[in-house]
């Protein structure tokens, strides 16, 4: 099974597993709940000591994932939590605001340069005495 936080993909993979094993053991087709029960029964049969290949459950409260590499999954998911997303958005807004201010400053300077050129006011001023 692929370690992704994608429930549709996980459901498809359980269906593939059930279909493959069903072809071997002549199981009838079933709904998603039956597929999950089948997977649980299959794992209990194949892993009577409940080690589940050293898999550990990682959850964010809405979804769960079984993996052998918990630290990696947590590290990959961390940038996608709400607080991090909010901070990233605020940083983007601040940068856009600063860029907008800089654009306004440059537009004013450009307008002043156009005015000087249109009125033939382009000359060097020596302010040293």
Overview of the molecule:
This protein has 129 residues and is mainly alpha-helical. The protein is built from four helices and two strands. A two-stranded antiparallel sheet has the order 1-2. It is rod-shaped. The model has no long low-confidence stretch (mean pLDDT 76).
Query: What is the rounded Rg?
Result: 31 Å
Q: Which structural class do the helices and strands define?
A: mainly alpha
Number of strands: 2
Low-confidence stretches: none
Q: What fraction of the residues are assigned to beta strands by DSSP?
A: 5-15%
Please bin the fraction of helical residues.
Answer: 55-70%
Count of helices? 4
Q: State the order of secondary-structure elements, H for helix, E for strand.
A: HHEEHH
Strand order of the largest sheet: 1-2
Mean pLDDT: 76
The biggest beta sheet is recorded as:
2 strands, antiparallel
Shape, per Cα inertia axes: rod-shaped
Give the termini separation.
81 Å
Topology at a glance:
Blueprint: H1 7-25, H2 32-46, E1 56-59, E2 64-67, H3 70-77, H4 82-118
Antiparallel strand pairs: 1-2
Please sum up the structure shown.
This protein is mainly alpha-helical and 129 residues long.
Record keyword descriptors for this entry.
single chain; 129 residues; mainly alpha; two-stranded antiparallel sheet; 4 helices; 6% strand
């Amino acid at each position: 099974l692929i370690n992704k936080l994608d429930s549709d993909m996980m459901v498809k993979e359980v269906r593939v597993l059930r279909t493959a094993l069903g072809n071997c053991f002549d199981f009838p087709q079933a709904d998603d709940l039956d597929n999950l029960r089948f997977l649980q029964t299959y794992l209990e049969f194949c892993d009577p000591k409940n080690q589940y290949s050293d898999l550990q459950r990682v959850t964010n409260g809405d979804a769960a994932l079984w993996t052998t590499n918990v630290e990696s999954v947590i590290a990959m998911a961390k940038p996608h939590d709400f607080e991090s997303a909010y901070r990233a958005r605020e940083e983007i807004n601040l940068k856009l605001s600063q860029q907008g201010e800089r654009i306004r400053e440059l537009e004013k300077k450009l307008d002043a340069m156009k005015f000087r050129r249109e009125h033939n006011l382009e000359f060097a001023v020596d302010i040293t005495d």
